[in-house]
Amino acid sequence: MIKAPREKIILGLDPGTNITGYGIICVTGNRVELVQYGIIRLGKTGEQALKLKKIFDKVIDLLKEYHPDEVALEAPFFGKNVQSMLKLGRAQGVAMSAALSREIPIVEYAPKKVKQSVTGNGNASKEQVAKMLMQVFQIKEIPKLLDATDALAVALCHHFQQGNLKPKSKSWEGFLKANPNRIKRISRS
């Protein structure tokens, strides 16, 4: 008897202080399907603690509705503004706490890792990431706020990092670009 592949739901989160993006995919065997993606608006004004509570509550709602097996988050990038970094770290911590309160495993990915995994270029723009996701999931229209597609990219990156459908190059040029440390220089004397 052949066992049917187990379905896995992955929730990707892009925590932010004004907008938190989310993206949910369903993986069954080698098939990856878009379930839902969107944003949680936190507003530009208001007390930071209330924004953090809203992130926690909305992530809990997503966990209750979609029952993800794993949660993947985009790690905050390192910037020069310490206050912004602190706020982003708090937003990420609250999102992590929501998943941990439900005993759901969490993983973080650096923004460059997410971009590299989805587009093949760690320096890709948000628009390039969104366009790639539009092709992968047959999304008809690019969203106005790219926080949603950023979160969807985090979920897809997590799937790729699990070893499933990891993009592989079939050309020497692609291999050399993906593995520059494996090239040995031969000096000619």
Structural class designation: alpha/beta
- Total number of distinct structural domains: 1
What is the CATH C level class, in words? Alpha Beta
Separation of the first and last Cα atoms? 64 Å
Q: What would you call the shape?
A: globular
Ranges with pLDDT <50 over ≥5 residues?
164-170
Question: In the CATH classification, which architecture applies?
Answer: 2-Layer Sandwich
Strand order of the largest sheet: 3-2-1-4-5
- Percentage beta strand: 15-25%
* Mean pLDDT, all residues: 86
For the record, what is the CATH homologous superfamily label? Ribonuclease H-like superfamily/Ribonuclease H
CATH topology: Nucleotidyltransferase, domain 5
Helix content: 40-55%
> How many β strands by DSSP?
5
Rg of Cα set: 18 Å
Series of secondary-structure elements, N-terminal to C-terminal: EEEHEHEHHHH
Largest sheet: 5 strands, mixed
The tally of helices reads 6
How does this structure look, described?
The protein has 189 residues and is an alpha/beta fold. The protein has one domain (7-182): Ribonuclease H-like superfamily/Ribonuclease H (Nucleotidyltransferase, domain 5, 2-Layer Sandwich), CATH 3.30.420. 43% of the residues lie in helices and 20% in strands. The protein is built from 6 helices and 5 strands. The chain has a 5-stranded mixed sheet. Helix 2 links the parallel strand 4 and strand 5. The radius of gyration is 18 Å and the shape is globular. The chain starts with 6 loop residues before the first strand and ends in an 11-residue tail after the last helix. The model is unreliable at 164-170 (pLDDT under 50).
